[in-house]
Design brief:
alpha/beta; 35% helix; 557 residues; twelve-stranded mixed beta sheet
Length: 557
């Protein structure tokens, strides 16, 4: 059996101009990065505003497991399948972070015969967007410390600086550090730390901005810390937002690539959903909706994390509204949620499957009852799935009012997801969406956190110490109370304990830290033991990644 990278390297790619022509993008609107990837000019994207929007399909999933679910693979496969049945479709994805590429997950460009290509480029540096985001973030950090060094005219309290540096790599040693050591010439020593790029506010701003001017305004609104009089200090107070925008002006243009089957894909931005808001850029999604009849996009991790943030943050801020949702699951992963050991997942186990179905059922209920959206469950097919297991799953989920489709896009490409595409089209055309948010704008920040925890996670209550509650009170006094919340927590469970599989209820969600993202216009609630700078596993994916004498990358899966 060929690996993902071997399949991708054997694909015959079309020149990017040919892919652009499928969407009616003229050559003058393209900025090629080699033969097979390009950026789309913002002037062209803005010129599309009067066009009618296509239909938006959101792909989400069950709570992730080590057995894998294949959400990105399904997003790509569904895009190919829609084109296969004669629809004009494009998919919108996030860019992969080098953290998981070299860490636990490996590549993030789909899998099998449902991939976006050139796979190596997309996973490794791509068009340099993440580098630009990191540089803009760290420029602000440098300007902040430089301002303090040269007299601190703003009277910034060095004990109340919240702006952290970033790097696009998993590196636990950088979580908490001391900077400016070595004497007066190096500045004033203080405690600091790094986040991973995909958790940064600049990444969130990048993905939520409507255009270049909106980007600059949002960057200027970043709160980096507080004065000794406890007044907020903004990036514009440091005159940093203009230079930051310069670093991001080219990165803000959406990236165009293709699937293995030669269908268009826009890949732009990449916040994680467990520690950030988990959606690709608004600019890319809006551009795609003007260029195609169907747009397939994904939200990170499960429907409790990525999909909730897609609804309550991205849709709230952009006006976007999904027409239908696809929830990706595998029978293997559901048996894992039912308590089966990883080594035993290939064996038929109806009892474990029935026990694990509660995870999928809750995600279906959340999508239908709390987000008000019609959904279909796509079973990412594996060779060891038995007819009895498939029948059990279908019977259970159809009782919840959702269709179940077996999809074989990993092995067969678009043709293997034909049934899924036809089901999605029928669902979209039925017009049964009754979209709604989980909480209203006017709710307090604590009420918003409670709504997400109790309605979506199945928690009994939310806890926080007096320091966190005081922080929330101050944020509301400062005018940030109408912002949505962005919950940072483990992706592996509805709870904050990654070992609690299935669909736990009655658990307590503890908020241990609150961070203001004034430019992105949301409040980050950090829960449980989640870290905004991940670490590498015992055996990182980097161990297997190499390049041969012919220049071909190996081990990137």
């Amino acid at each position: 059996m060929l690996s993902d990278i071997e399949i991708a390297q054997r694909a015959t790619l079309k020149r990017i101009g040919e892919i652009a022509a499928k969407l009616g993008i003229p050559d003058q609107a393209l900025e090629p990065y080699g033969h097979y990837k390009a950026k789309i000019g913002l002037d062209f994207a803005n010129s599309l505003s009067a066009r009618k929007n296509g239909k938006l399909i959101l792909v989400t999933a069950i709570s992730p497991t080590p057995a894998g679910e294949g959400k990105t693979t399904t997003t790509v496969g569904l895009n190919d399948a829609l084109n296969y049945i004669g629809k004009k479709a494009v998919c919108c994805l996030r860019e992969p972070s080098l953290g998981p590429v070299f860490g636990m997950k490996g590549g993030a460009a789909g899998g099998g015969y449902a991939q976006v290509v050139p796979m190596e480029d997309i996973n490794l540096h791509f068009t340099g967007d993440f580098s630009a985001i990191a540089l803009a973030n760290n420029l602000l950090a440098a300007l902040l410390d430089n301002h303090i060094y040269h007299g601190n005219a703003l009277d910034i309290d060095v004990r109340r600086i919240h702006w952290r540096r970033v790097v696009d790599m998993n590196d636990r040693a950088l979580r908490d550090i001391a900077i400016a050591l070595g004497g007066p010439g190096n500045g004033f020593p203080r405690q600091d730390g790094f986040d991973i790029v995909v958790a940064s506010e600049v990444m969130a701003i990048f993905c939520l901005s409507n255009d270049l001017e909106d980007l600059k305004t949002r960057l200027g609104n970043i709160v980096v810390g507080y004065t000794r009089a406890q007044k907020p200090v903004l990036a514009r107070d440091l005159n940093a937002h203009g230079a930051m925008t310069v670093l991001l002006k080219d990165a803000l243009k959406p990236n165009l690539v293709q699937t293995i089957e030669g269908n268009p894909a826009l890949i732009h931005g990449g916040p994680f959903a467990n520690i950030a808001h988990g959606c690709n850029s608004v600019i890319a999604t809006r551009t795609a909706l003007k260029l195609a009849d169907y747009v397939v996009t994904e939200a990170g991790f499960g429907a409790d994390l990525g999909a909730e943030k897609f609804i309550d943050i991205k849709c709230r801020k952009s006006g976007l509204r999904p027409d239908a949702v696809v929830i990706v699951a595998t029978i293997r992963a559901l048996k894992y949620h039912g308590g089966v050991d990883l080594k035993e997942l290939n064996k038929e186990n109806l009892e474990a499957l029935a026990a694990g179905l509660v995870n999928l059922e809750r995600h279906v209920d959340n999508v239908r009852n709390h987000y008000g959206l019609p959904c279909v469950v796509s079973i990412n097919h594996f060779a060891n799935d038995t007819d009895a297991e498939v029948a059990l799953l279908k019977k259970a989920i159809e009782k919840r009012g959702a269709a179940v489709v077996l999809a074989r896009h990993w092995a067969e490409g678009g043709k293997g997801a034909k049934d899924l595409a036809e089901t999605v089209v029928k669902m979209v055309e039925s017009g049964t969406s009754n979209f709604r948010f989980v909480y209203p704008d006017e709710a307090s920040l604590w009420e918003k956190m409670t709504a997400v925890a109790t309605k979506i996670y199945g928690a009994s209550e939310v806890h926080a110490d007096s320091k966190v509650r005081e922080r929330l009170r101050r944020l509301e006094e400062e005018g940030y109370g109408r912002y949505p919340i962005c919950v940072a927590k483990t992706q592996y469970s509805f709870s904050t304990d990654p070992k609690l599989r299935g669909a736990p209820t009655g658990h307590v969600i503890t908020v241990r830290e609150v961070r203001l993202s004034a430019g992105a216009e949301f409040i980050v609630m950090i829960c449980g033991d989640i870290m905004t700078m991940p670490g590498l596993p015992r055996v990182p994916s980097a161990d297997k990644i190499d390049v041969g004498p012919d220049g071909k990358v190996v081990g990137l899966f």
